[in-house]
Design brief:
Blueprint: E1 2-12, E2 16-19, H1 20-23, H2 31-38, E3 42-45, H3 52-67, E4 76-80, H4 91-99, E5 105-109, H5 115-128, E6 134-142, H6 152-155, E7 160-171, E8 176-184, E9 192-194, E10 207-209, H7 211-232, E11 242-245, H8 250-260, H9 271-274, H10 281-291, E12 300-307, E13 311-318
Parallel strand pairs: 4-5, 4-6, 11-12
Antiparallel strand pairs: 1-7, 2-3, 6-7, 8-13, 9-10, 12-13
Helix pairs in contact: 3-4, 7-8
Length: 319
Amino acid sequence: MIRSVITGTGSALPARRVSNAELAETVDTSDEWIVERTGIRFRHIAGPDETTATLAADACKAALAAAGRAARDIDLIVLATATPDQTFPASATKVQAMLGINDCVAFDVAAVCSGFLYALQVADSMIRAGAHRRALVIGAETFSRILDWEDRTTCVLFGDGAGAVVLEGEEDSGRGILATRLHADGRHNELLYVDGGPSTTGTVGKVRMKGREVFRHAVVNLAAVMTETLAAAGLESSDVDWVVPHQANARILDATARKLGLNPAQVVVTVDQHANTSAASVPLALDTAVRDGRIRPGQLIVLEAMGGGFTWGAAVVRL
């Protein structure tokens, strides 16, 4: 039996780091207001020469180095993003070119904040089916380009960044992706969306969100999908070493942990430093915790996320 194993992680952040205090100079907000409601203190904002693809490529280089692999070893690239460089072609193909890979399967997945979980299951399925051996699975965003900077209820929440993992097929040794579960419910489009697109307005549009309603759905859906995914792997919450959640809001992270009976100390939190980086937030948080030594080989981790659509999902992984 073949399992998909995470053999390397990497991340990349724009050079510009913006504090709440700096943001308050141009937006009607304050550090106290933002921290109290979200837990966010900083975010990174992409500069003119930084795009979703450039950040993704940098994250991939770091992941490849961690895995001890060369770019030529990769035969699949799946990039999750809601902010591609262009409407087409897929930003994954730009990453492919930046890495110097002449030929491999490369495409984008769009599931907003849940995108990395969707991309991970797609790549896992292709590896277990024997179609591919080694993949780069990426979450990358430049959400700053689709924010309404006059709407303080949304513009303070998001940041830019990228995270990536190298996923390799190996004979089952107990490591790797043990179970994944994904969901979507399109009835909630108006709660979190972008008010534009090529087929409707012919524009990119801006992010719109009804935060209170999103919060309520997030806590219920995330706790349920984590329980569901652990059960599919034959495990319980007491078996979990770490939860690596989508970094949307510190209050959502706390509420979800309590609902599952988990110790908050087992939850990787980076939202204070990076804000909500949408599809990038899970792999970015994973890489942070791997590199600072919190997450170690052999540990059981749960990845989870929910985003616009609504889409949501979880993965149980043993590193």
